[in-house]
Structures are given as structure tokens and as C-alpha cells.
Amino acid sequence: MATESRDITEATETDRELTMSRAMVEAIAWEMRENEEVFYMGEDVADYGGIFSSTTGLLDEFGRDRVMDVPISETAFLGAAVGAAQAGMRPIAELMFVDFFGVAMDQIYNNMAKNTYMSGGSFSVPMVLTTAVGGTYNDAGQHSQTLYGTFAHLPGMKVVVPSTAYDAKGLMHSAIRDDDPVVYMFHKRLMGLGWMPSPTGPKTPVPEEDYTIPFGEADIKRHGNDVTVVTLGLHVHRSLEAASQLEDDGIDAEVIDLRTLVPLDTETVLDSVRKTGKLLVVDEDYQSFGVTGEIIARAAEGALDDLSAVKRLAIPDVPIPYARSLEDEVNPSTDKIAAAIRELHE
Amino acid sequence: MYEQMVTARYYEERLQEEYLVGKQPAFDISAGPIPGELHLAAGHESSGAGVCIHLRDDDTVTAPHRPHHIAIAKGVDLKKMTAEIFGRETGLCRGKGGHMHLFDPDVNFACSGIIAQGCPPAVGAAMAAKKRNTDSVAVAFLGEGAIDQGGFLESLNLAAVQDLPVVFVIEDNDWAISMPKDRVTDVEDGSRRAQGFDMPGERVDSDDAVAVYEAAEKAIMRARDGNGPSLIEVQVHRRMGHFMGDAEAYRPEADIERAKQRDSIERLADDLRAHGVSDDDLDEIRERAHERVDEAIAWAKEQPEPDPSEAYENVFTNPPAQTATDGGSEGGEQ
Ligand SMILES: Cc1ncc(C[n+]2csc(CCOP(=O)(O)OP(=O)(O)O)c2C)c(N)n1
């Protein structure tokens, strides 16, 4: 499963740069054109085009039957997506913010995630649950979580977290074509929204044609020999920035973007750790019982002898606070990542 | 009532100004002095004022993501509330909650950001009142878009079967972000949902504070007298976007214009004039309200930001002894 680093500009041979939102929508539109059975439902996905521009333009092309605004009844429409998927369609259902999972979690983790297994494989649930994640704009504890670990913890869901436009498109094609339920978590800060400026990294060249990115292939976004940084989502970009800040000091960090949590590309992480001996895991989810612990456990299981130092940065087990000074304190910043890499390097 | 309404309207207008500071010319949600999203309630005033005027401090109110007019009418401390909206240390929630999550135990007010989330806790407050044999009541406010949520429908049933002193108030502003009511329900009159639970339901069809006052009085007295829950739907309107920064591209211009013409504050002023209240008196009320709002905003802006170490406080009332080794809960290391 290990993958070679993907030099995006070379691999795609295109100069056409898209925002992550445009890239994601392009894949959805392509699949909807190809397959009548694909449809999209959610709140404000029709005329509004998705609060975070996840469906911009789809209503115009496909009409209300295939791009459906639905009542604020997540239990009903996420559960309906499960039923439609079991009937053989390929629904995409949007949970506006991942934080709202609570009102519909039963449908998500008792139906969507388990029906394949509990039916002994006689049913498949080929649906995509799209959802916006992440903080950094001070929206407080009910609108700023990522909950990566929560979804990855519960068996039966594939969990995808793109960090660039190129990855967003390829992962969306894969998600829609996959016969299993896929939770596709897009970070608001990476979508390229006019009103929530993105860092420079997520806007990348994106090929016009369709392509898939296989699940379970992490991407080495920066090669380095000194310290391995494993991360995902927004923190790929913060980690890359931290790594480039450290270049001048002669610290050469490798940055691995997991891209999918389920399945998880353990091999790429182990190969890197064997090379550097030092591991930092950076996550925008809660620290305990989550992604950081899982990555470190796998590194310990697979490469204990090669490890000389380990560290993690995540949300320190507090709900996400509202005030800027407080959210900045708990959400791992570029500076904190740089300091942690430096510390590991010493 | 009039004073509460003009306070609420002016508050939203002033907050809009303050919110846009630093976020212009290109709107950037994470810039400027006020953090996060901001859902303003201009056009909703009749509902907050007409209902809360019947309430005492020991009555509980839960409000949704568009809470300011209700908080003001319930008597939430305006200065501390404003400081909270600015994310300051002396805010109601020490900067942890923000505009969608205001908590004021002095007047038993809370609001929250997830649809219909306040309904079950209002039922719980009513349960507590009933068990303790007090005559306090609870009121849960929610939008018309929220009445398709399980948490609301389950709450109606629980309140009804236990005859709890709770009143549900639906604020119908015609829109749930970009979704008009008829796209998400076939039942135009939301108060009819009460019938399915065998409780009284009434719709106040116009943006009319006096009519809200009357309907709320009936429902709240019924609850206070131990006769169980009621449901009221109030027609209000949305004078601004769903949240600040919402360009409302989905909303016909004519709808915005029509909404603005249904100004419940003007309507109440006319009623008051018809009852002999002079323009001078109305002006005086308005001036007093404006002064109070300006003072609260000025005070809030002078308040300090919370110290970063505050982020680790209040996770628990009785914090467990620390076991984490690497900054799991204490600031320094993180
Ligand atoms: C469970 C849940 N789903 C979706 C949302 C996102 N959301 C916030 S406000 C809103 C529309 C609410 O409309 P309505 O209840 O009519 O209140 P209004 O905003 O019009 O005052 C939506 C969908 C949410 N906060 N919680």
C-alpha cells in the first residue's frame, strides 16, 4: 500500500488550478453525468450550493430531483440515504457540519456502518456522507470539531480527509464508486471560500478528466530525513509551513498526509519512521483515544526499535472554545508544530 | 414590550456594524473584533418580547442560534452578554461560548447552536419545576425549520404525556437559511403539529406583538396552573441574511421588501399612539434603549481577551487529578 510521493505538477500535467471546493464538485458532477443513480441531498445544497460550496452549480445542471434540499431532519435523510443505497442507488448525503452528527448518529453508525457486516455481506451500502469539519474561525464548541477519530473508531465506514484540490477530486471519484459507505470530511478552511480564506497549499492543478485516488495510500507531501510528521486535513499545510521554516536551521522534516483514515496506510508511516527515527503526529481532533494515539501505537507495533522520540499535538481534550485567544491556544499552530519538530530533532 | 423590542432591534443593528469592522471590503469571517458566525434577529422582536414579558427570572428559556432578542427580553445581563459575543474574559461564559451559546443562570437562560437542541432541556426544566411543586415554567424557542427535527417532536410528546409546564414557541421567519418553508413541509401552519400530541396549538399569523402577547399569556398561564404544555407558532420575518455574510442570492428581492414592510415595531408604535402614547414618549423609550445598547457595546469592547490558560478551565466542575504527562490538560506544553 505504500506510495511514492506524488509530485502534483508532474503527475497531472495541467496548469489548471482549482480550489478544493471546485475540484470536489467537479468529481460529483462527473459521476452524476455518468450514473443516473447518483444523487445529492442535504440542507441548502440546491439553491445555496452548499454552505461551504460543496455543491455549487449542481442544481443548475441536474435539477431538483437529483440535487435535493431536504428538511432539517438528519435522522430521516441520512437514514434514507442508507435505504436508497441498500436499494442499489448511490446517494451522497451531506451533514452540514460534522458536529451535527449527534442528532443522527444512530443511522450513521448502527445502520450505515454496520448493515453490510450484520447482513453477512448480503447488503452493501454504497453511499457517501459528505461533511464539513474543522475550526480556526472561532465558531465555538458545536461548530468547530473534526471528529476524525470518532468516525474512524467505529468499524464499517471508510473515512476520507482530502487536503488539496487534486486529492479532493480523486478521492471523491473513489468515494462515489466505492461499494461501501464513505465518510468524506472536507475542512472548511481548505475549500477556497471567498469568506474564509484558505492557506496557499490546497489550491492545486487538477486534471480535467476523471481519476481515482485509491483509499489507503498516504501521500508524502514533503520528503525529509530528520523527523516524520504524520498529519491530515488543514494541518498538512500547517506542518508543511513549519517544515519549510525549519529548513534554514538544517532540520529536514518529512510530512505525510494520511488522506484516508480508514483504511490507514501504516506502511508509509513505518517506512518513514524507520528512516527518521522520530515521529510527530499532528491532529485537529481531540488528543485522547484518537488519531494521534492510533498512529503512535502502529508505529510502536511496527517499528519500535527504530523509534527514538515521539510527540503528538492535538486538541488537548477540551471542547473548542470561542474566543480567539482560547481557540488559538488549543488548535495546533504552525509555531507549535515547528517547536515540536525542533524538540524532537534535538 | 416596546422598549425590549427597540432595544433588540438597535442591538442587532449595532452588532452588525461592529461585526463588519475588519471584515471589509472582502468579507472574511475570521477577521475583526467579533469572532465566529453571527445570526442576527432583526424582525424577530415581537416573539421574544411578547412571550418573555410573562416570564419571571425563575422561569427557564432555551433559545436557538438566533438568540439575542430573546435574551434581551428575558433580562439577560446586556453588558456581559455583549462581552461574550466579543469573546471577552468578563463575558457571560468567559469567552468560551460566544453568540450562539449564551448561558445566564441568574435568569435561567440558555441558547445553543444545533437545531431543536434546546427543546429537551426545556422539558427537563419543566420536569424539575413539576417535581419540586413550584409554579415556574419553561419556554423553548425554535425556528420553523427546526420543527422537522426529532428532538422537537420527541419533546412535544414527552411534555404532553407528563403534563409538563412547558411552552414551545416556533418563530416562523419563512426561511431556514435558503430553504423556504414549503420546500420542507406540507403543513403550512406549524402549530397544527400540536394536534398530534393532543396539546393546544395556536398560530399568530401576523408580525403583531400584541397578538403574541395574548397567545403567550394563555399558554404560559395554562402551564403555570399545572395544565400542561402548549405550542405557539409566531409569524416573524428576517430582515437580514441568515448569518452575517450571507448574500441571500437565493431570496427574491420582493420577499425581502415584503418582509421589511411587516415591521412589528412600527406596528406596535402605531398601536401605542392609538392608545394615547405620545411620540415624545416613544422617542424617549427609544433613546433610553439606544443608550443602554451603546453603553453595553462600549463596555464590552474595553474588556480583556481571556488568557490562553483559561482554555483548560471548566471542562469539569470537579476536575479530576491530572494523569496526562504531555500537556493533556495543562497549557504550557501544548
Ligand atoms: C441538527 C442541525 N442541522 C443543521 C444545522 C444548521 N443550521 C443552522 S440554522 C439552520 C436553519 C434554521 O432555520 P430555522 O429553524 O427556521 O431558524 P432561522 O435560522 O430561520 O431563525 C440550519 C439548517 C444545525 N445547526 N443543526
From TrEMBL, chain A:
Swiss-Prot/TrEMBL GO biological process terms: organic acid metabolic process; sulfur compound biosynthetic process
Co-factor requirement: thiamine diphosphate
Positions in coiled-coil regions: none
Classification via Pfam families: Transket_pyr, Transketolase_C
GO molecular function, one term: oxidoreductase activity
SUPFAM superfamilies assigned: Thiamin diphosphate-binding fold (THDP-binding), TK C-terminal domain-like
Keyword terms: Oxidoreductase, Thiamine pyrophosphate
Keyword Chloroplast in record: no
Domain Transketolase-like pyrimidine-binding: 18-193
InterPro entries listed in its UniProt record: THDP-binding (IPR029061), Transketo_C/PFOR_II (IPR009014), Transketolase-like_Pyr-bd (IPR005475), Transketolase_C (IPR033248)
The keyword Oxidoreductase belongs to this UniProt entry's keyword annotation: yes
Protein name stated in the entry: Alpha-ketoacid dehydrogenase subunit beta
UniProtKB/TrEMBL annotation, chain B:
Domain Dehydrogenase E1 component: from-to ranges: 32-308
Compositionally biased region (Polar residues): 315-326
Lineage: Archaea, Methanobacteriati, Methanobacteriota, Stenosarchaea group, Halobacteria
GO molecular function, one term: pyruvate dehydrogenase (acetyl-transferring) activity
SUPFAM superfamilies: Thiamin diphosphate-binding fold (THDP-binding)
Descriptive protein name: Pyruvate dehydrogenase (Acetyl-transferring) E1 component subunit alpha
Keywords, in A-Z order: Oxidoreductase, Pyruvate, Thiamine pyrophosphate
Organism: Haloferax marinisediminis
Coiled coil, from the record: none
Region listing for Disordered, in residue ranges: 299-334
Gene3D superfamilies to which the protein is assigned, alphabetical: 3.40.50.970
GO BP term, example: pyruvate decarboxylation to acetyl-CoA
Oxidoreductase is among the record's keywords: yes
Transmembrane segments: none
Keyword Nucleus set for record: no
Domain of life, per lineage: Archaea
Required co-factors: thiamine diphosphate
PANTHER family found in the cross-reference section: PYRUVATE DEHYDROGENASE E1 COMPONENT SUBUNIT ALPHA, PYRUVATE DEHYDROGENASE E1 COMPONENT, ALPHA SUBUNIT BACTERIAL AND ORGANELLAR
